[in-house]
Design brief:
Elements lengths: L10 H6 L4 H11 L9 H17 L8 H11 L6 H7 L6 H9 L8 E2 L4 E2 L1
Helix pairs in contact: 2-3, 2-6
Length: about 120
């Protein structure tokens, strides 16, 4: 599913617009068990970081590419081990970004699954 809807419509932007962190936390806690993720303080911190990034950047199309968002999280949590740390928090096999979107009830991003090589981000 593409993040780009009809011309000038940004689905991701609309999925974070007007949403509070409290609501995101509730969504994560509700969806965590079905994804086998423990909604720990560390998980919520990562979800919050990505959510705030989206709120700050989706209106200018900086969050349209899942690869860029994965790099953003890797850099934001480099001090804790980067992508290895993130994979340990979100061990679903679905990819960190894909899992965060499922937990938080956000729309999917472009190319969140690379079907050519079988990789999820």
């Amino acid at each position: 599913m593409s993040n780009l809807g009809p011309k000038n419509e940004r689905l991701l932007y609309h999925s974070v617009e007007g949403v509070s962190l409290t609501e995101i936390h509730q969504r994560v806690k509700q969806n965590a068990a079905s994804l086998n993720v423990i909604p720990s303080a560390e998980v919520l911190e990562v979800v919050e970081t990505l959510f705030k990034h989206y709120q700050a950047n989706t209106d200018n199309d900086q969050c349209e590419d899942v690869h860029a968002d994965a790099r953003f999280l890797d850099q934001a949590f480099a001090h804790k081990g980067g992508s290895k740390y993130l994979e340990e928090l979100f061990p679903t096999g679905q990819g960190v970004i894909h899992t965060i979107h499922a937990l938080a009830g956000l729309s999917q991003l472009q190319m969140d699954v690379d079907k050519g090589i079988g990789t999820a981000f």
